[in-house]
Amino acid sequence: MLGQLAAPKNLCVLHLSDIGDVCNSVAAVQSIQKQWPHTQITWVCGKEEAGLLKDLEKIEIISFDQSAGLKGYSDFRAHMKGQSFNILLNMQANWRANSVSFFIPAKIKLGFDRKRAKQCQWIFTNYKIQPQTKAHLVDDFMGFTQALGLTVSEPVWDIPIPESDEQWAHETLFSSKQKPIAVISLAAKKAECNWHVEGYAQTANYLDQLGFRVVLCAASTAMAAQLAEYICQQSEASILNLVGKTSVKQLLAVLKLAHINLAPDTYLAHMAVTVGTPVVSLYAHNNPRKVGPYLYQKYVASCYYEVIEEQKGKPHNQLPWGVRAKGNDLMDRVTIEQVKSKINLVVEDFYSLELETKGELKFESRF
Fold it and tell me: Minimal CA–CA distance to 28: which of 97, 102, 90, 121?
């Protein structure tokens, strides 16, 4: 712990990737900014993440090109020449972030405690945040706020969306039908974390029957495009397929206008959290209490706890926090009925369902 500090002239945040974790860390950075409004904040992140963060108010974004190899490091070193920071918050514990931090001149380099300072992050920092047990990633990042002697409050996110992107999303989603929007977010980075086509297709049918307009979203990858095509082929619902057709800001605008988001362990779930859209999330490999959508733990459809006990021979609360379950077909154990029940719970908590009108949803406009 650093104790109570006077507001520094400047500080640098280092969190390169991925977008989901960056979303989780935004709340902590903006909490620091509110309490130190005159401190100049610089954020070093990856190119894709820069697309999400570039409009953050009064925060300078420096993009580090991770794909450029040694040239990326050379360019970054040149960019840092002559700069000096009072504090560096190293919010990512991996070798790439460690090596980048070497080129960021700062008097105080604050990182995770020894237990969580993976891949030797502790060598590259001279101060550590307090150890935490059984904390969500959002709370882990809030540990940096606490270490600076600042008040830790409930997380709040404010990621601006350009008006042009909001307008595009509005016209795309509501040009033909004024219906509540259900976004199905596809394609986790690891194929094993994706749900099966049948599950997505039947869930799309169910959402359609409830009165939602179903929209598919994902990053532009071959895996996501193929998955979306199969879902559209197998589902009886009229589906709007936006996979690979949105920028990151357009995607955020779509999620903001949505009334519900269904997602596996993917960054889109965390993006939805930042704009206040309820998430029904699907987990099998990772502990959702550590990495699931922070505000919407109530709506997690998971088989993680039973699987991890089967694999390790102990209940999850007797194992290291966040230990990962292994297996390529674990997501098959998340049932369609589980997912439907969580969707019903979101509808019950956020919207009203008029059974006498054949299940038509009554919903508050989000635009």
Answer: 90
Secondary structure (H, E, C), 238-263? CEEECCCCCCHHHHHHHHHHCCEEEE
Which residues are within 8 A (CB) of 64 and not within 5 positions of it... i.e. 6 or more apart? 16, 44, 45, 46, 47, 72, 76, 100
What is the tens place of the pLDDT at every residue in 53-75? 999 999 999 999 988 889 999 99
Buried b (16+ CB within 10 A) or exposed e, 215-234: bbbbbeeeebbebbeebbee
Contact 143, 118 (CB under 8 A): no
Instruction: Among 3.40.630.10, 3.40.50.300, 3.55.50.30, 3.40.50.2000, name the CATH number for the domain at 164-362.
Output: 3.40.50.2000
As beta bridge partners, residue 353 has 361
Question: Which residues partner with 213 through β-bridges?
Answer: 181
pLDDT at 358 over 50: no
Q: What percent of the chain has pLDDT over 90?
A: 83
Smallest CA-to-CA distance from 260 within 301, 198, 219, 212 is with 212
